[in-house]
Design brief:
This protein is mostly helical. The chain is 80% helix and 1% strand. Strands 1-2 form a two-stranded antiparallel ribbon.
Length: 419
């Protein structure tokens, strides 16, 4: 699996992600960069879109913003952060594209909107491929999205926090799973209300502790940015290959962890945005752009800067690296602040990814048996994730997310005229 990921995540995915991102950015005339005020006004004026944005953020804000950043640094060096930024800039156009498509093809039932990538894939290819072929394509993606909700959105999230508290993993897993079930059993409205409160409060809290550390070490911040840029283009490593070992690793880990963080282009978040009560697809798309900006440019950068200025590399474990970095600067407050943030971010991601998986499965069949079976499987995986080793989790997550992202990007490119 590791060798497959080296090719898929190290070559194919970066080319697809950056190529498709550049294509849509050019088509959209980089409006979110050259006309940020208009984009912000469209975002602010999006009535009914805030709750769906919080759901989407809950689905992406998680260990990718904290542990994923540390994992990228350990795997690809400081230069990985630069490539996370690059992927984020181009991913903004991809997020806009998939959100707009989801809004155009969403459905309504009993006054509630629903939809997502399987729906725009099915309707988008109806005329070109016919009902049967379109349904097969859309169903294939729905299956991938369901698997992703079980792996990236569940296994990785739950497993990452399984060993960070001095509580038996069995008990922690049982408590975590029980609370998650209690939230999701009330449906999307409960998830929406829960995330609308949790995500803003949790984000402000995490930003505050990071800002305190950066202010405390303000003289080291320029150095942190310097090493990020220098490591992104390691000329010494480049002499050993076409791209260079250092550069290729930085690109692979930076882009794959950036993708794990914001999931732009992967086709997951459109499910949340399609449930919005907003009427304007463009405004909702601008909220999607903000989602990527806040997720990767803001939160991931703050995490990276704290790790770099701390200079703590006593462990090869990503979670330990983060905890040691925050504890070095703020003592027990920093350590437990990160622990609480990781726990709640992971919890929000798990309940949102359950919604994504259930909605994707509903495209194939709305049978209650399917829903019950998925629910049982999903939360069984959540509980088991606390008891199994972490070693293969990132490899599984990278593989599944890479395949579905390439699939979705191909569909977005073929349907670009609708955007």
């Amino acid at each position: 699996m590791s060798e497959i990921n080296k090719v898929l995540c190290g070559v194919i995915l970066p080319l697809f992600l950056l190529g498709a991102g550049l294509f849509f950015a050019i088509k959209l005339k980089f409006f979110y960069i050259f006309k940020p005020i208009k984009a912000i006004k469209s975002m602010v004026g999006c009535r009914g879109g805030f709750s769906s944005l919080c759901v989407a953020l809950a689905g992406t804000l998680g260990v990718g913003n904290i542990v994923g950043v540390a994992s990228a640094i350990l795997g690809g060096g400081y230069g990985s952060i630069f490539w996370m930024w690059v992927s984020a800039i181009f991913s903004m156009s991809l997020k806009y594209a998939e959100v707009v498509l989801a809004m155009k093809h969403r459905k309504i039932k009993s006054g509630k909107y629903y939809g997502g990538a399987p729906y725009y894939i099915y309707e988008g290819f109806l005329k070109k491929c016919g009902k049967k072929a379109s349904f097969i394509l859309a169903s294939a993606f729905a299956v991938l999205c369901t698997i992703n909700s079980l792996t990236t959105g569940n296994l990785v999230q739950a497993n990452a926090i399984s060993g960070i508290f001095k509580i038996p993993k069995f008990i922690l897993g049982l408590l975590f799973t029980t609370f998650a079930v209690l939230v999701v059993c009330r449906g999307i409205k409960r998830i929406s209300k829960f995330t609308s409160v949790l995500i803003p409060v949790l984000s402000v809290f995490y930003i505050c502790i990071c800002t305190i550390i950066l202010i405390k070490n303000i003289s080291s911040v320029p150095y942190a940015f310097k090493v990020i840029f220098e490591s992104a283009f390691n000329l010494k490593s480049a002499s050993f290959g076409v791209l260079g070992f250092g550069i290729s690793r930085a690109i692979r880990y930076g882009i794959s962890r950036g993708l794990l963080s914001n999931e732009a282009g992967s086709g997951t978040a459109p499910c949340a945005h399609a449930s919005s009560n907003a009427e304007n697809a463009h405004s909702q798309g601008c909220l999607g752009i903000f989602e990527v900006f806040f997720d990767t440019i803001v939160l991931c950068t703050l995490t990276a800067l704290v790790i770099i200025i701390s200079g703590v590399f006593s462990s090869e474990n990503a979670m330990d690296l983060v905890l040691d970095s925050f504890e070095l600067n703020l003592g027990s407050i920093g350590r437990y602040g990160v622990l609480i943030s990781c726990l709640l971010f992971s919890f929000a991601t798990v309940i949102t990814q359950y919604f994504y998986g259930k909605e994707s499965l509903s495209f194939i069949s709305r049978s209650k048996i399917f829903k019950i079976a998925f629910t049982v499987l999903f939360f069984l995986v959540t509980f088991v994730s606390f008891l199994i080793p972490m070693s293969v989790m990132w490899e599984i997550a990278d593989l599944v997310l890479a395949i579905m992202t390439i699939f979705n990007l191909a569909c977005l490119l073929l349907l670009h005229k609708q955007i």
